[in-house]
Specification:
The chain is of the alpha+beta class. The chain has one helix spanning 56-71, and strands spanning 7-12, 18-28, 44-55. The chain has one domain (7-30, 38-71). It has 1 helix and 3 strands; from the N terminus they run βββα.
């Protein structure tokens, strides 16, 4: 299952043996009476998407995997 997320927070216990990552989706709160209105700034709400708890070692492995993906050279593929 895939879920879109655009916000997260991270916490670790005192001894570093467990890490918790909470993922959220920040979505606009559209008022019911705003069907045809133009609004300069719309308030948002954060909807929980997933809450993960992992060992400190798993968190290090996740960090290494993300760094490997994000630091790899990317080629532009034209369709």
């Amino acid at each position: 299952m895939q879920a879109y997320t655009n916000r997260f927070n991270v916490a670790m216990n005192f001894d570093g043996s467990e890490v918790m990552i909470n993922f959220f989706q920040s979505v606009p709160q559209v008022p019911e009476d705003a069907a045809n209105a133009v609004v300069a700034e719309m308030p948002t709400e954060n909807i929980p998407v997933a809450n993960l708890v992992m060992t400190g070692q798993s968190a290090h492995n996740l960090l290494a995997a993300l760094q490997g993906i994000l630091n790899a050279p990317h080629e532009n593929i034209e369709e």
